[in-house]
């Protein structure tokens, strides 16, 4: 039988209570009197207890932290899991259809308004076929100040803090803080690969002028830019630059990144790039079947070895440059040069050779680039 509507039930109950017999009313009154006799002393005792509590905690605020503390204790055990879930979410949202993301890292020194990160994002907006790639960029912040600035200027940010370590200040080349930050970054990239995401990693002092994907090799597990390119994509004499690489997630790359990270113990005092240029010769790399492709500086250049043709250039890196002010100065001029190139009519772009006005402040005064590269090669026991 169908249940009657709620308002019908209410009216029936009310009508029935109005028709209670007299003896039922007497029994109800007696029960009420007995309940009152029992409840009254209990109420007095309860009120006294409340009064004592209110004298100790007049506003009752101390009762809430006990609950919050329990939640906090539970949260401490879940911190790692929650951060891992946050990373999963941001990678999933930013990834392309083939699970590829673009990654860069940021600390407070490079995050301030008008600093490196603003130039980096501006280059995507001014590049040819690059603005849409911002939808796939995740900025990894090494400190809370960098993270706060990141969320103001970009929609995909992830905070990668390290307890007891301050990564916020400018890290000069090869200082202990610089080395620790570089190795932290490398271990994070290994984690991204393990999660099944391929990536383009780009230092934030690299300007993106064209979509790089058409210029990657169809095969190759790890494709990496160079400080010096000898003309052959598979020649191990190429001097790799770890600031820009395209890595596919598979068993070989995951194993290589683990090997690369552990190799820091074999080469103390060296950063990840120098160690890469050493271990690329290790027989173990061939044993795991890793295929390395070195990217030509004609498309992926830098101050060490610039991309000379603005009709071809994809990225330009402020490498071979020490000091944040010098980087910002020369990167700003580079962006001006690019805008001047874009303003030319197509016929002039093809016929008129364009050139960069940089490096300026980034020009190494004591050592030229070939000397730097020679030192690098000698330090890791190879010939250029």
The global form is globular
Strand content: 5-15%
The CATH topology assignment of the domain at 79-297 is Spore Coat Polysaccharide Biosynthesis Protein SpsA, Chain A
Radius of gyration: 33 Å
Which stretches are poorly predicted, pLDDT < 50 over at least 5 residues?
Answer: 1-26, 40-77, 166-174, 365-375
Report the biggest beta sheet as strand number plus sense, adding barrel if it closes.
Answer: 7 strands, mixed
CATH class of the domain at 79-297: Alpha Beta
Structural class: alpha/beta
The span between the termini is: 92 Å
How many distinct helices? 13
Average pLDDT, to the nearest integer? Answer: 80
What CATH architecture of the domain at 79-297 would you give? Alpha-Beta Complex
Q: How would you spell out the order of helices and strands?
A: HHHEHHEHEHEEEEHHHEEEHHH
Quick structural gist:
The chain has 384 residues and is an alpha/beta fold. Helix content is 48%, strand content 12%.
Word description of this protein:
There is one protein chain. The protein has a 7-stranded mixed sheet with strand order 3-2-1-4-7-6-8. It is globular and about 50 Å long. It has helices at about 5-20, 20-55, 65-95, 110, 115-125, 145-155, 175-195, 250-260, 270-280, 285, 325-340, 345-350, 370-380; strands spanning about 100-105, 135-140, 155-160, 200, 205-210, 220-230, 240-245, 290-295, 300, 315. Residues about 1-25, about 40-75, about 165-175 and about 365-375 have low confidence and may be disordered. α7 (about 175-195) packs antiparallel against α8. With about 375 residues, it is an alpha/beta fold. It has a domain at about 80-295: Alpha-Beta Complex (Spore Coat Polysaccharide Biosynthesis Protein SpsA, Chain A), CATH 3.90.550. About 50% of the residues lie in helices and about 10% in strands. The N and C termini lie far apart (about 90 Å). About 30% of the residues are buried. It is an enzyme of class 2 (transferase). Belongs to the glycosyltransferase 77 family. It is found in: Golgi apparatus membrane. InterPro entries: At1g28695/At4g15970-like, Nucl-diP-sugar_transferase, Nucleotide-diphossugar_trans. It is a single-pass type II membrane protein.
């Amino acid at each position: 039988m169908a249940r009657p509507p709620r308002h019908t039930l209410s009216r029936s109950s009310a009508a029935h209570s109005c028709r209670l017999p007299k003896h039922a009313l007497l029994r109800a009154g007696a029960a009420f009197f007995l309940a009152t006799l029992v409840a009254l002393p209990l109420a007095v005792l309860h009120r006294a207890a409340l009064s004592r509590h209110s004298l100790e905690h007049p506003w009752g605020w101390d009762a809430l932290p006990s609950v919050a503390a329990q939640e906090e204790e539970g949260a401490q055990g879940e911190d790692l899991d929650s951060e891992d879930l946050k990373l999963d979410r941001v990678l999933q949202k930013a990834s392309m259809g083939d699970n590829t993301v673009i990654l860069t890292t940021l600390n407070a020194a490079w995050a301030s308004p008008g600093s490196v990160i603003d130039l980096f994002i501006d280059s995507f907006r001014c590049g040819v076929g690059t603005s849409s790639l911002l939808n796939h960029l995740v900025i990894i912040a090494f400190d809370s100040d960098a993270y706060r600035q990141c969320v103001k200027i970009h929609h995909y940010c992830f905070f990668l803090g390290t307890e007891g370590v301050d990564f916020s200040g400018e890290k000069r080349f090869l200082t202990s803080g610089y080395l620790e930050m570089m190795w932290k970054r490398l271990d994070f990239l290994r984690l991204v690969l393990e999660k099944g995401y391929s990536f383009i990693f780009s230092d934030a002092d690299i300007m993106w002028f064209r979509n790089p994907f058409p210029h990657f090799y169809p095969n190759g597990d790890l494709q990496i830019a160079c400080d010096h390119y000898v003309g052959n994509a598979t020649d191990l004499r190429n001097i790799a630059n770890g600031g820009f690489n395209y890595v596919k997630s598979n068993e070989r790359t995951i194993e290589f990144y683990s090997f690369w990270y552990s190799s820091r113990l074999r080469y103390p005092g060296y950063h990840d790039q120098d160690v890469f240029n050493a271990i690329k010769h290790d027989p173990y790399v061939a044993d795991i079947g890793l295929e390395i492709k070195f990217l030509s500086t004609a498309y992926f250049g830098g101050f060490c070895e610039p991309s000379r043709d603005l009709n071809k250039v994809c990225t330009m890196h402020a490498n071979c440059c020490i000091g944040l002010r010098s980087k910002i100065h020369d990167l700003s001029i580079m962006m001006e040069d690019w805008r001047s190139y874009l303003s030319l009519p197509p016929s002039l772009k093809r016929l008129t050779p364009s050139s960069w006005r940089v490096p300026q402040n980034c020009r190494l005064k004591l050592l030229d680039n070939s000397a730097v590269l020679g030192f690098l090669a000698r330090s890791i026991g190879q010939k250029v």
